[in-house]
Amino acid sequence: MSTQPQQPEPPEGAVAEPGQEQDLPAPGTAEARGAGPEGPGPDAAGGPAGPGEKAGEEADEKAEHAAALAELEDRWRRALADLENLRKRHARELERERAAERARTAAALLPVIDNLELALSHAGADPGSIVAGVRAVRDQAVDTLARLGYERQDETGVPFDPARHEVVGVVEDPDVAPGTVVQVLRPGYGETGNQLRPVAVAVAKRE
Predict the structure, then answer these.
(1) DSSP letter string over 11-22?
(2) Around 156, how many Cα atoms within 13 Å sit in the side-chain half-sphere?
(3) Is residue 39 over pLDDT 80?
(4) Which pLDDT belongs to residue 166?
(5) What is the spatial distance between Cα 145 and Cα 109, in angstroms, rounded to a whole number?
(6) Which of 8, 29, 91, 166 is deepest in the core (most CB within 10 A)?
């Protein structure tokens, strides 16, 4: 009896020659489903999102934007309310300060009024004493204005300064330089930049 030699099996992955049988993949395996070296198909995990997933992401993004916008609007309204409250509080404090300053000024003038009334009550006394009393009241009033920040200005012999002086007359005087204050017709009170009123003066001129 003769024995036929057995043909060697082809290596795994080799292409069968014509006339030779080729092993087919078992049903149900990945090879049978058509998965190759290119990887899993589009239905596998990690593939492109479908229309439903994209719509869900857009809805979530819109919700986040709406929440952020609502928070910003709430902060804006709170800032406006705080600013309005601050403005009202500042207006009240400013009015209180003005009222307090008026009260301090009036209180500083009360002693002057009291002394004037005292001088008037002695109108039948010696005229010399009345004049001395009125002069003392005047000095007291001048001192009160100085303490309030408005010192008396009545210097003569100084150059004319338009920021401090108001010319109400011109006098010919060859002994002084032109533009020199030679007479104070009405004293002023306060320094330059903080004047209660300027000094009314007469200045010298030359022909």
Answers:
(1) PTTPPPPTTS--
(2) 10
(3) no
(4) 95
(5) 9
(6) 166
Whole-angstrom Cα distance, residue 207 to residue 205? 7
* Residue 144 burial (10 A CB sphere; 0-12, 13-18, 19+): middle
170 sits in which H/E element: strand 165-172
Give the Cα separation of 76 and 78 in Å (integer). 5
Question: Helices 51-121 and 127-147 sit at what angle, rounded to 10 degrees?
Answer: 170
Distance of CA 90 to the CA centre of its chain: 14
pLDDT at 38 over 70: no
Q: Give the model confidence (pLDDT) of 102-161 as tens digits.
A: 898 889 889 999 988 888 888 777 888 888 888 999 999 999 999 989 999 999 999 999
Which pLDDT value is given to residue 202? Answer: 95
DSSP, collapsed to helix, strand or coil, labels residue 184 as: strand
94 φ, ψ to 5°?
-65, -40
Backbone angles phi, psi at 56, to 5 degrees: -65, -40
> Which pair of tokens denotes residue 46?
């990690």
Name the nearest CA neighbour of 154 among 180, 179, 189, 193: 189
User: Backbone phi, then psi, for 124, in 5-degree steps?
Assistant: -85, 5
pLDDT, averaged across the chain: 80
Amino acid 100 reads A
Per-residue tokens: 137: 């009241």
